[in-house]
Amino acid sequence: MKKITVKDILKMKGKKKIVMITAYDYPFAKLVDEAGVDIILVGDSAGMVVHGLPSTIPVTMDMMLTHVASVARAKPRALIVGDMPFLSYEASIEEAVRNAGLMLKSGAEAVKIEGGSEMVDVVKALVRAGIPVMGHIGLTPQRYLLLGGYRRRGVKEYEAEKIIEDAKELEKAGAFSIVIEFTAADIAEEITREVSVPTICIGSGPYCDGQVLVLHDLLGIYEEIPPFAKKYADLRRIVIDSVKKYAEEVRNGVFPERKHYFFSKRRGAEK
Ligand code: KIV
Ligand code: NA
GO CC terms on record (predicted)? Predict the structure, then answer.
C-alpha cells in the first residue's frame, strides 16, 4: 500500500478518523504498521515507558534520534512523526531548526512540538525549512512543572479560551495537525470545528479528527495506565507467563529439546 504523507493526513479531516499510536523501535514499528495505523509517533513518552524516567524532562535529542532511526528502519507505510524533546526547540529558533532537521535526517517525516501561541515563531521557522510540524496543546507534559502537574485542561473558561487560541495560532503558523491532550471534550470539539487541520486527541473526547494512545498503555505492559487510556491486551501477563514457563523448562531440563541442538562429527554429526 502507498506511503502515507502529510497531505494524506490533511485530506482525512472530516472524512476518516486518523489513527495514531506511539512506537519507539523497529519491531513494534513493524507490528503497528502491519495493524494499519495512519501515524506512528515516536513520542518522548519513550523516556517514561522505555527508559523508566520519572518524566519527559530528561529526554535528549540523542535518545530521540536513536528511537526515530530504529522506527524508520521498519519502513512503515504510516507517517513517522518524531517528538521534539524538552530543550531541543525552546531556547532559540536556530536550535529548533537544527534539531528538527536532525529528526528528518534520522528518518522522521514530521516533528511534533509542545506549546501553543508562544511557539508560533518556531513553527513558522520549521515550516519555512520544509519540516512539517504537528502541534500539541492542552496538557503539555514537558510543562507539567508550570501547569502544576498532569492536570485536566480547559475546564475553566480562561484556560479553554487560551487552548482554543493556541489551536488557531498553530494552524495559522502552518502546523499540519494538532494533538489535544487531556482537555475538556467540548473544547476539543470546538477546536476541531474551527480549524482546518486535523485534531488528534488523547484524553480529550471523541469529537476529534483522530485519536492517539501510548503503545505500552494499550498493550498493558504496565499495571497502571492514565485514566484516559484503554488496555487492549494484557501483555504484562503474557510476558511474565512466557518467561516463567521458559525458566521452569530450563530448571526441569525440558528445554532445550532435541531439535534445538546438534552434535560434532565424532557422533557422526547426527542431526
Ligand atoms: O510522547 C507521546 O507519547 C505523546 C503523545 C501522548 C501525544 O506526546
Ligand atoms: Na510527547
Answer: cytoplasm
Q: What is the number of the ligand closest to the CA of 45? A: 1
Q: pLDDT at residue 268 above 80?
A: no
Q: What is the whole-number distance in angstroms between the Cα of residue 13 and the centre of ligand 1?
A: 20
Is residue 209 a known part of a binding site? no
CA distances from 192 to 13, 171, 252 (A): 9, 11, 59
Share of residues in the chain with pLDDT > 90 (%): 97
User: How does residue 271 score in pLDDT terms, banded at 50, 70 and 90?
Assistant: low
Mutate to test the pocket of ligand 1, among 214, 215, 216, 228 (most ligand atoms within 8 A of CB): 214
Pocket of ligand 1 (CB under 6 A): 22, 41, 43-45, 83, 179, 202, 212, 214
pLDDT digits (tens, 9 = 90+) for 208-244: 999 999 999 999 999 999 999 999 999 999 999 999 9
C-alpha 96/C-alpha 79 separation (Å) is 21
Residues with CB under 5 A from ligand 2 (ion): 43-44, 83
Angstrom distance (rounded) from CA 67 to CA 50: 10
Q: Letter for the amino acid at 242?
A: S
Beta bridge partners of 111: 82, 133
Map out the domains of the chain with their CATH numbers.
Answer: 6-233 (3.20.20.60), 237-271 (no CATH)
Q: Complex ipTM above 0.95?
A: yes
* Mean pLDDT within 148-169: 97
Q: pLDDT by residue (tens digit) across 90-128? A: 999 999 999 999 999 999 999 999 999 999 999 999 999
Tell me the C-alpha distance between 141 and 182, whole Å.
10
